[in-house]
Model the fold of this input.
Amino acid sequence: MRTAVRRARRAGATLAAVLTWAALAGGLAGCKAGAVFGKPRSSEELIRVTPEDRGKEVRTDTGLLVEVPTGRLESVKVVKVQDAQEEPVPGRIEGNGVLWRPTGPDADRLALAAKYTVDAVAVDGDGRRVARRTTFTTAVPGERFIGYVTPENRATVGTGMIVKLEFNRRIENRAAVERAVKVTSVPPVEIAPHWFGRTRLDFRPERYWRPGTKVTVALDLRDVEAAPGAYGLQRKSFSFTVGRGQVSLVDAAKHTMEVRRDGRLLDTLPITAGAPKSTTYNGKMVVTEMLDVTRMNSRTVGFGGEYDIPDVPHAVRLTDSGTFLHGNYWSGGVFGSSNVSHGCVGLRDVKGGGALTPAGWFFDRTLIGDVVEVVHSADKKVAADNGLGGWNMEWQEWKDGAAAVP
Done:
């Protein structure tokens, strides 16, 4: 059921991924019920990263460092994304594990107009692993603006992927910026823009993409005036390919999830969804991130100090606000019979993440851009701008969100 590579990657329950993008958005997901996992030091205390988390307009001469005052660093991964091109930042752990710093010819400088993600795993003095993710963006020259593009260049994605551009400053002349962005596909299909506020522009077709479609995003933003004195910097094209179509239907009342691939039922899995006081959103949600393991802390999503789980396995992000579909090893025999989570969808798993558990099975068959739809939950429909929730809008309503006259 798995390739040997997958089995080897999970061997020893290796912590291969760390804190989720929710730290950037101001919230980490969490859906724990039951046992308490002790009180390890927080990731912010144990792992110190410079520049600071969520920093914006960071100077390029700022040093990039990861440090631990006690314990030792186990792994550090730093990724730079510039114009939708992802590139690892080389570095090494020094000083018996207390410090990581970049190496190479550009070690002393950060790139302009780039987004950096730092994923670090450390072991404290008591042998407990703690994971932390931080992100920051570097300065854009002068009064310039850029758009950060999702998905990544040359990615293969699910049929529910929505193209998202997040701009580094408010766009006052939205029509001019919108006209400077062209999203096309082969085979061709009508693709429409929709603005969410003044800093986000999304594109999607009327229905999910056809498998095998190649989509190109062309930015002709250079010298486009988005606000008085603020001009675009980019003139680039990016592309991605749509893979097979997978849509999973979560029925919160039946406690099941039907996984369909190109219309064919692959399996029906028992799940647990949000408890009566913390229900799961209804509606269509798109997978935007996949982590082998992550930390989930209730304080980051408004639940007080109810839980702090440092090693949630097989975490699939569905919303920016912190809804995940993830492995659950702590809730006993609730799967298929009751809803006990804090809003996420849980699948049976084992500590460290099992290759042959329902959670492992689903994780290995999922792509960024796949759709998960929740029905029969006692909650509202997920907002269209919460993650890539745009499929919850009717086509005409979506098109009405354009700024430029066709």
Q: What stands out?
A: The chain has six helices and 29 strands. The CA atoms of residues 163 and 379 lie 27 Å apart. The two ends are 49 Å apart (CA to CA).
